[in-house]
Specification:
With 139 residues, this protein is an alpha+beta fold. It folds into 2 domains: 29 residues; 93 residues, no CATH class. It is built from 3 helices and 6 strands; from the N terminus they run αββαβββαβ. The protein has a 3-stranded antiparallel beta sheet with strand order 2-1-3, with helices on one face. A 3-stranded antiparallel beta sheet has the order 5-4-6. The protein is elongated. The chain starts with 10 loop residues before the first helix and ends with a strand.
Length: 139
Amino acid sequence: MAVFRDCTSGEGILSFRFAARRRAIFWVALIVSLGALQPAVAAGALAIGKCGAYGQAYDYPAQQAALAAAKKACKGDCTTVTMKRACAAFAVDMANPCGAHGYAVAPRISSTLNAATKKCYDYGGKECVIRAWACDAKG
C-alpha cells in the first residue's frame, strides 16, 4: 500500500513507480536465482532382461552411474536404455512373460507407457501390461 505525500509536483507518483519497479526487479531476480538452484540431476536408465527381469535407476548425477545401478538390479543378461529428462517403461505379455515385450523412452510418462505397451503387442503379445516404469528429475 502506497502512502502519498502532499505534493503538487507529481513527486509521490514518481517515487511510487520507482519503488514498484525496484520490487519487480527484485522478485524477477529472486525467481531466476531459485530456478538456477535446481540440482542438475537428470540421468536415468532402465535395464531389461529375459522373462520380465528388469532394473531401474533414476535421478542419478551421471549417466554411467545410472546405467551401472540399473544393470546391477536386473537379473541375468540385460539390455539397458537410458533416459535423460524423460521417462522409460517396460511392458511384458502376462500370458507368456518370457515371450513378447516392449520398451520405450519419451519425454512424458503417458506417451512412454502407451508406446511400450504398443511395442509389446506389435511383437505378438496377447495380454501386455506395464512391468516397470521410471522418470528422471524432469520427465
